[in-house]
Amino acid sequence: MIRYVGLMRSTLVALFPLALVAALFLGVVHARPTPSFRRTIPQESFRTDRCTWYCHNHGCRHKTSLPDWLTSDAGAFGFTIRGLYALGRVVSNDAPTGYGIANLLVFCTAWPVLTYGLWITALLQHKSLKRERARQRHAEVA
Ligand SMILES: [Zn+2]
User: Fold this and answer.
1) Which pLDDT score is estimated for 74?
2) Is the preceding peptide bond at 33 cis, omega within 30 degrees of 0?
C-alpha cells in the first residue's frame, strides 16, 4: 500500500507540469472576456531613454546593459539567429517560413521536451538519493 501511494505521488509530481500547462492553455482559450492579443506589430517612435517597438521593428541603437558576447550579432544572439535560419533552410526553401518553423521546432518543441526531461531526471535523482539515504540509515542500525 505504501509503495502504491509513493508511486501515485511520484506520478502526480511528474505529471504536474504537463497538467499546469494544459490548465493555463485552456484558461486562456476559454477566458471571457477574451484576452486581447495583438494582431499587428505596434508602431512606436524612437525614444532615447529606453527601447520601444521602434527598436524591435528597425533595430536597436541603445547601449546594451548585457555584454556583447551575449547580445551582439557576433555573439550568442547572432549565433542563435543564424542557427535558426540554417535549420529553417533544411525544412523550407522560403527563408522566412523556414525561420518560423525552426523557431517552433526549437522553442515550442525541443526546449519544452528538454525542460520536461530535466524535470523527470531531477525527480528520479531525488528518489534515488532518498532510497540511498534510507539504505544507509538501515545499515547503521543493523
Ligand atoms: Zn533599443
Assistant:
1) 95
2) yes
29-38, 70-79, 117-126: least confident range:
29-38
As a whole number of angstroms, the distance between CA 19 and CA 1 comes to: 25
Q: Which is nearest to 57 in space by CA: 71, 43, 67?
A: 43
Q: How far is the CA of 111 from the centre of ligand 1 (A)?
A: 27
Angle between helices 76-91 and 95-103 (to 10 degrees): 110
Ion ligand 1 residue ranges (Cβ < 5 Å): 51, 55, 60, 62
Residue 97 near residue 87 (C-beta atoms within 8 A):
no
Task: Compute, in angstroms, the gap from residue 94 CA to the centroid of ligand 1.
Answer: 29
Separation between Cα atoms, residue 75 and residue 79, nearest integer Å? 6
Q: Which of 74, 31, 38, 30 is nearest to 56 (CA)?
A: 38
Mean pLDDT of the 83-96 span: 96
Report the distance separating Cα 116 and Cα 16, nearest Å.
Answer: 11
82 Cα: distance to centroid of ligand 1 (angstroms):
21
Q: pTM (2 decimals)?
A: 0.67
